[in-house]
Amino acid sequence: MSNFGEGKTDKEKMEMLNAISPSFCGAKWYNATIWLGSGQTTSCHHPPSHQILVNDIVNNPAGIHNTPQKMDDRAKMQAGERPAGCEYCWKIEDMGRDAISDRVYKSQIYTERDLDDAKHTHPSENINLKTLEIAFDRTCNFACSYCNPAFSTTWVKDIKRKGPYENLLSDGRNNFTHEHKEADPYGHKSPNPYVRAFFKWWETDLHKTLNELRITGGEPLMSPNFWKLLDWFKENEGKSDTVLAVNTNLVGSRVVEFLDRTRDMAPVELYTSCEAIDEQAEYIRDGLIMDEWYRNLGYAFDKANVRGIHVMCTINSLCLETLPEFLTNILRLKMKRPHPEVNFSINILRFPSFQSPLVLPDEMRTHHKEQLEKWLDTFWDDGKGTLCTEMEANQVQRLVDYLDVVKTPHSETFEQSKLENDFKQFYSQYDVRRGKDFCKTFPHLADWYNTLGEDDEK
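Above: the chain sequence. Below: its structure as C-alpha cells.
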C-alpha cells in the first residue's frame, strides 16, 4: 500500500488528514523521540518531552513509547481536539495563508491503512512504532548556542567551570543555570533501565516492525551503545528491514570510521545540521569546524554507503542573514552530486525564546523575509526544472509567513523587553566564555545589539 497522500500536493494531503480529524497526526502513534539517558520521550521534536515511569517498563518495554500522556493525546486527536503540547503546528496552521504544518510531513510517511488503524485503535493500546529516534546519552563534542547541558556534556563542562549564566529573565526552564544532572541520572556506570528496555524491545519485536531507527544525541558517535547497535546490524544482516538513520554533527575523530563501517551494512540515512555559513555557523554551533563539516559531507557522498543525506536547519535569530546562501550551497550539492539524494528541512526555533528569530526588530524580520522571498523566486518555479522540492519550498515559504505574521514564539507569558535583555545578557557572556565576538561575527546586527540594555542604564 502506498504512503498517505502519495501523488497529492501538500495542500491536498492536509485536507485528507483533516478529513480523518482536524487535529490528527500519525506521529502520536507511530513516531517517537526517546532520550534513554534520562527516560524522557515525545512524539516528535516539537512537543515538550515528558517522563517515562520506570514501573511502566519493568514488564512492558514498549512502555518507553506508549506512555499515559501519549495515550491521552491520542484520545484528543481521535476526537478532533488539539493537544496542548502540539502548539507548534497549531501556531503554524492558525497563521492562515494555507500554511502546511509538520503534522502533514509527520503523517505522510505512513500508509493510509496505518492512519486508519490509528484512528480506530483504542488510545490505551500498545502501538508498535514505525519510526523511532533515540539518544543513548547526552555525550557531545559541541556546545551549540541554543542547546543546553541537558543535551550536551560540553555544555555541562561550561557550566561546571564557569558557573551559571546570570541575569536571564525569560529562561523559565533554567536551561543555562545548572548542570541538568537529571538528564543523565545513570551515567555510564549504573545499569540504565531505559537502555535495557530499548534493547529488549528491539531484539524481540521492534526490529521486525520498525521502518526507520534514527540515532541522535548528544553526538551518537561518542556513545558506546551506538557502536553496540552497529555491531547488531552487522551480526544480524538480513534479519531486519529497518533502515538505520544517524544524526551526526560530522565533526570528530570517529566520523570517517563510521562512514567506512556503512560499507558493510545496508544503506543508511545520514542526518546532519547547519543553517549558516563560515564563522557565523561556527559561532552558532560552538565546536563546529565548517571546513571539516563540508569535507566529511563530501566523504559521505563519495565513500560511504548512504542512500540519503538530510540537512536540518534550526532557524534562530542569528542565521537568517546567511541562510539563503547556505540553502543555495545545498542546492549546488544536489547539482554536483545527484546521488545519494540530498535535501534540507526548515525547523523554526522557539526555545530558548530569546534566540527566536522573532526577537529581532520588525525591520530586520522584514528584510530577512524579503531575502527569502527572492530566494524562492530564484529557485522555485512550481517544481518545473528546479532543484528545490515542493516540501523544501513550502518550508521556506512557511518561514517567510512566520516572519511576517507570528509575533510570539509560543503562547506562554511573553515580554519583548525581557527577550531583548536576555539576548544581550546571554551573548555577551557567551562571547567571554567561548572566546567569540558577536559584533565582529554579525556586523549587520551590531548597531541593534549595542543599543540593547541602554534604557536600563539610564
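Residues 10-133 form one domain.
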